[in-house]
Amino acid sequence: MIIHDKKNFVAGALYVSFGALVAIGSASYDLGTAQRMGPGYFPLALGLLLMGVGLLVAASALGAAGPRTELGHWPMGTVAVVLLSVVLFGLLLRPLGLLLAATVLILASARAHSAWNWRTSIISAAILVPATAIVFVGLLGLRIPLLPSAF
After folding, report:
1. Residue 49: left if φ>0, alpha if ψ -120 to 50, beta else—which one?
2. 15: which of 23, 49, 53, 108 lies 20 to 30 Å off by Cα?
3. When comparing pLDDT for 83 and 65, which is higher?
4. Host H or E run for residue 20
5. Residue 44 CA to chain centroid, in angstroms?
6. What are φ and ψ of residue 37, in 5° steps?
7. Has residue 1 got a pLDDT over 70?
């Protein structure tokens, strides 16, 4: 077996790995049935779907018809900034609320981009933060505080 597109193969392997972790993690919750879904039903379906996409991406890397790519240097500083911004979001969510924590997440993770500037970061935050609040609090009904508890 010859891997022609190493980037897609690694991406597919990461999808399969993450999907498997989600599917295994959902096993501790009640699955329910298709008519009365339990809390583990959706994560299991999403994990299996992600695994399927990962297998398709990895399999496409094995064909000789596609481009031949190699894995390049990983910018570890960029990876660290993005991962730390997600951790910071998790730490700030309860004390600051969704609106401020999501703003910090977007501004901090945008800093990792090579073409970073304040203007596009603030525009992104101005669009994504209200959309996040609408989806997760308004539509899905999650009980996440929007503002700090002082308000």
Report:
1. alpha
2. 108
3. 83
4. helix 6-26
5. 16
6. -70, 135
7. no
For 147, the 3-state DSSP assignment is coil
User: How much is the average pLDDT of 20-48?
Assistant: 89
Of 38-47, 68-77, 89-98, 118-127, minimum mean pLDDT range: 68-77
DSSP 28-67: TS--B-SSSB-TTHHHHHHHHHHHHHHHHHHHHTT-TTS-
Neighbour tally for 96: CB within 10 Å: 19
Q: Which tokens belong to 113?
A: 């981009």
Q: Which residue has the higher pLDDT, 151 or 55?
A: 55
Residues 108 and 122: beta-carbon distance below 8 Å: no
Which pTM does this prediction carry? 0.63
Number of Cβ atoms within 10 Å of the Cβ of 2: 8
The dihedral of CA 106, 109, 115, 117: what is its sign? positive
Residue in 42, 46, 40, 45 with CA at minimum distance from that of residue 27 = 40
- Sequence-ordered list of residues with C-beta below 8 angstroms from that of 130, at least 6 positions apart, any chain: none
Mean pLDDT of 77-85: 91
